[in-house]
Amino acid sequence: MPQLRVLIAVKDEAEAKKLSAKLLQAGHLVIGRVWEAKDVLRLAFETQPDLVLLDPAIPDYGGLGVAQVIDDHRLAPIVFVTADCTRLSQLAGTGWLFSYLLVPYSDDDLYLAVEAAWSNFKRLLALEQENLRLKKTLESRKLVERAKGLLMEKKGFTEPEAYRYLQKLSMDTCRPLAAMARAVIEEFSVEPEKKAPK
Description:
CATH architecture of the largest domain: 3-Layer(aba) Sandwich
Number of strands: 5
CATH topology of the largest domain: Rossmann fold
């Protein structure tokens, strides 16, 4: 695991110092120790930490509000640090629980929680990227299918001819197939009387 830049947002100062010492011992860098929600968010946005250790009972917005903001912006994975196991059941239903640390804990518990949060966050980011790529691919295919349908309807092409026509347009203009499909759709969507002369 790489060296992580960690923000500690734990209300109990003694607990924050203990976490800080153990993280430094494990080779990580503690970039800040704060315990008020506004300070957590300010520091998280300013420093872009790799990981946030967060007490769900911090004042102001509370840990859940802070976690939601951090998660909405995909700033960092969160490890909730709490002695109250009933809080964990509330957190389990949220999307923000990458890992948790139940006080008291061992060194191994801390290191496993950090590693689990980091791994889960990286996996989530990879899945989101893959999801975005698949959405773009699907959108491109929909455009191509729609353009082929219009070419078949308006120009009397067969399906293979329509596809080859789009491919040729794409190659001739050095533009993506989806861009050419969009251009064909726009061309046929304009009413004849409003079409600009060629």
